[in-house]
Amino acid sequence: EKQEDDEMVLQILFAFYQLLQATQARVSLLSQTQIVVYLLDLLLDKSKQVRLMSDRCLDVVIEADEAWAAQIRQRKFEMHNKEWLEAVDEDEAEEYQDALALNNAMSSFNMGGGMDDGMGDFRDGAHPGMRLQQPLHAS
């Protein structure tokens, strides 16, 4: 059944391909239908043959209609480079999070008077929990 569905889609795509070759039919299809949207969706189809035929139809549209050309090229680029673009987006998100964390750390450093160097009150001769005792005098 799936094979038959793919074959039907291929036949329809071939008919559209032929219609897109004729100027009047192409103008009508592009102005009165959502054929480009459907063809772009079919670029994601599971069937390799369907994807290839859809791509061929879109190539005809690119050659014949500048209004659609930029959008189709952009969408094809995004689809072709989807994994790479997702990786770049993830890297940018991580870099943003790192920069935000650094910015927050620097803000708290500046507002809090600096970081504790671990010496605490030792510079003044005192430490919490340590009692100062009077020195023993030998008499």
Secondary structure: elements and pairs:
Elements: H1 2-21, H2 23-32, H3 35-42, H4 48-64, H5 66-80, H6 82-111
Helix pairs in contact: 1-4, 3-4, 4-5
Written description of the protein model:
This protein has 139 residues and is mainly α. It has a domain at 2-82. The chain is built from six helices and no strands. It has helices at residues 2-21, 23-32, 35-42, 48-64, 66-80, 82-111. The termini are far apart.
Please tell me how large the radius of gyration is.
34 Å
Shape category: elongated
For the sheet with most strands, the description reads:
none
Mean pLDDT value: 81
| Structural class designation | mainly alpha
Strand fraction band? under 5%
Oligomer: single chain
Distance between the termini: 110 Å
Brief description of this entry?
With 139 residues, the protein is an all-alpha fold. The chain has six helices and no strands.
